[in-house]
Amino acid sequence: MGRILAIDYGTKRTGLAVTDEMQIIASGLTTVETKDLLVFLKDYTVSENVVKFVVGEPKQMDNTASESEVFIQKFLKQLAKVIPEIPVERVDERFTSKMAFQTMIDGGLKKKQRQNKALIDEISATLILQSYLSSKS
């Protein structure tokens, strides 16, 4: 089948999560500095069988696009040029950062560990991917 890779895009850091080859389990992959993201994705897709990108779509409570959507659209254009063979789907990512933080609390992480923004981004990407997988089953 191939892996699905989720992207929680941020202007500084971007959280990444990936499925197993059977697309059953979503796992955090890493957090990458956004300036290095396209190079990382290109290298990763050369070594792993990625069949789809799932990119978080931040929305306001009234369902309009958030301010960060401008940056995400720019990134999506660059991604389509660098890796045109892998399709992209968007997933509503409202509340994923709050859910990621709560997941860290529920998991017993200490306050110092919960301040790790890179970990929050990676967990957010995992939640986006899990949401996508749940919507498909």
UniProtKB/TrEMBL annotation:
Keywords: Cytoplasm, Hydrolase, Nuclease, Ribosome biogenesis. Residues 2-100 form the YqgF/RNase H-like domain. The lineage of its organism: Bacteria, Pseudomonadati, Bacteroidota, Flavobacteriia, Flavobacteriales. Could be a nuclease involved in processing of the 5'-end of pre-16S rRNA. It comes from Winogradskyella luteola. It is an enzyme of class 3 (hydrolase). Belongs to the YqgF HJR family. Its main location: cytoplasm. InterPro entries: YqgF (IPR005227), YqgF/RNaseH-like_dom (IPR006641). GO terms for biological process: rRNA 5'-end processing. Its EC number is 3.1.-.-. One of its GO terms (molecular function) is hydrolase activity, acting on ester bonds. This is Putative pre-16S rRNA nuclease. GO terms for cellular component: cytosol.
